Amino acid sequence: xxxxxxxxxxxxxxxxxxxxxxxKQLLESRxxxxxxxxxxxxxxxxxxxxxxxxxxxxxxxxIRFIRLKDKEARTTVQRTVQFLALAAAExxxxxxxxxAHFSCGQGMYCELDRPExxxxxxxxxxxxxxEQLVERDLPLTPQVFGLRALxxxxxxxxxxxxxxxxxxxxxxxLVFYRMNGSEQLYYGRQLPSTGYVRAFGLVPESPGFVLLxxxxxxxxxxxxxxxxxxxxxxxxxYTDWAGRVxxxxxxxxxxxxxxxxxxxxxxxxxxxxxKFFVEAAQRVAxxxxxxxxxxxxxxxxxxxTSSAKRLMVxxxxxxxxxxxxxxxxxxxxxxDTPRGPDGDYDFESLGALNIDLFNEHLKGLMxxxxxxxxxxxxxxxx
Length: 382
Fold this sequence. Notes:
By secondary structure, the protein is an alpha+beta fold. It is built from ten helices and twelve strands. The chain has helices at residues 23-29, 74-92, 120-135, 147-157, 160-166, 229-244, 250-258, 262-285, 304-317, 355-366, and strands at 6-10, 13-17, 41-46, 49-51, 62-67, 98-104, 107-112, 140-146, 173-179, 185-187, 200-205, 208-213. Strand 6 (98-104) and strand 7 form a beta hairpin.
């Protein structure tokens, strides 16, 4: 049995292997694993499922290699950079957890779990420690943990946030990654080692920072960071509010569910939402009489129309007579809609809208004129 071999298919080529050979070992035997390569292999797709290079093979698998610059590797690179930040923070700020809160400006907004804001020097020190971890090219090794053992680890470390999250999991075992020399555990597929990270950046945004990852096509380059102070302030305000009402993470949400308090959470959330529209309506009412224009922006299905209706109700309470204009009614005919690189209609493109007609109507309305508004029929596309 020791000499028994099985066949796997690698990029269309049949190869014989010993059972239990990992993807990494297969690559090493073929000389195809080099973190210094311009576009190295970083993860694999086995039978259509993305996995790390530590995955063992037992025959009849179809393997496709995914490289650093491939779109499919993007989330794996981002997770590894976040893992670097967590491990570095553990070294520099012992006993003070680093929390990754939300996406911001093509990066991830992070804060230390402490009352004091991070200083620019502390952010720089954290970045320096991350650079050291990259230079050491430390392996990122997957390890299977039983749920009981995982709870014991978090309890011993005093990591109450992860302990609360883990205790509601309904799995017998989970795969976590460990960085050589670090006690940190990270859930989610990782690069083979820290040396595969080409670029990252930490932009101070008090009280925390925004963590940037190298661009997909050019992993050695960082994306331009464009500050969005209003958006950042709103997201931080919501994060702080969620923490005050006991909703810090998914573990907290599970506690609400188990304890039968979801009704209370829904009512609190609705009350906060209503409070926002009451305050927003008053701000609109305080604008000059010459004309009040309120713009609601957001991606498709983000709630713009619903929010406009709720705002209009509050404006009517204040004695105003609002009217809503929807950009959906200014789509060009379907056959005139531009297409994206994939050949599908690109409804997010400005070319999908009759901007000239919209501007004409908006100027007329702001001048107090009467205009005839269009209505787009989505079924006919006209």
